[in-house]
Amino acid sequence: MARAKFALPSSVTLLSIACGFGSIVISVDNAAIGDPAAYRMAAILLVLAGIFDALDGFVARATNTASEFGMQLDSIADVMNFGCAPGLLMYCWGYAQLGQGHPTLLRMGGLACFVFVACGALRLARFNVNVGRTDPRYFVGIPITAGAACIASVVVAWPNPLVNWNQGYLLMALMVAVGALMVSTVRFPSSKQPRSRALYLLVAVNLALLAWLQSKFFVLFFVFYISATLLINIGWRGGWRGLPPPERYED
Question: What is the CB neighbour count within 10 angstroms for residue 12?
């Protein structure tokens, strides 16, 4: 029973990996077909991977089975689930068909997707070496899970593959922009912020918007999340202290 208990968090992580791998398989199999429902399913699997990624840490803390092995497995899973899988999804969804007659666009799209994957890997490496050195109330750069969810939300909202060059260039800009946010030093609020009435009100508003907008909600959520975070960081530089700025920790 003791050994089984220690294997439980890793089993949840493996479920996350299964979702990420399933998303990759669906993206590749659907590249030549372009079925919108299949692309939406691939994006939803990335959301499920994120849920399992959050659950493995919760299970480890609840059962007091956190370990170095589990941390390493979780980090490896994050590279595949939230770096490679969304990068490949966006490449197949955005450029597999659109780029058939335009090899330059196809290569540029592939490069933009690689930038996203590379920035995600760099973001994870920086996070691993900075554990305990930064204010836990804030992430340094957007987390890779949030970056992947931001990318996947576009496919959930508009699952039909891209059909013109302008859309292809916009997707390149999105991939590079989200990648840049991951490796930036912009501070993104984490779930460890103090609970307040305003927070609960914000959750209630988001649930109401989800019921109203459905698949379009997630795109709106990330537009607001990123825009608000950038404004908060700009406000800190200008002296605003409505939200306490992150503390600096010395090694």
Answer: 21
Name 120's Cβ contacts closer than 8 Å, sequence gap at least 6. 78, 79, 82, 83, 87, 144, 147, 148, 179, 182
- What integer pLDDT is reported at residue 250 of this predicted model? 40
* Spatial contact of 43 and 156, defined as CB atoms under 8 Å apart: yes
Task: Report pLDDT digits (tens) over 169-210.
Answer: 999 999 999 999 999 999 998 876 666 666 667 778 777 877
Q: What is the CATH number of the domain that holds 28?
A: 1.20.120.1760
What's 139's DSSP letter? E
Reference 154, options 246, 202, 219; nearest CA is 219
Bridge partners of residue 156, in order along the sequence: none
Q: How many domains does the chain have?
A: 1
Mean pLDDT of 152-174: 93
Cα–Cα dist 61/124, whole Å: 21
Residue 251 in any domain: the answer is no
Which stretches within the chain are classed as H helix?
Answer: 2-30, 36-62, 68-79, 85-95, 103-129, 144-157, 165-183, 197-213, 217-237
pLDDT band at residue 242, thresholds of 50, 70 and 90?
confident
**Contact yes or no for 120/149 (Cβ under 8 A):** no
Q: Which domain holds residue 73?
A: 2-232
Q: What tokens appear for 217 in the block?
A: 């909600």
Q: Is residue 67 part of a domain?
A: yes
* Single pTM value for the model: 0.89
Task: Report yes or no on 244 lying in a domain.
Answer: no
Chain centre distance of CA 48: 12
Q: Would you say 59 and 8 are in contact if contact means Cβ atoms under 8 Å apart? A: yes
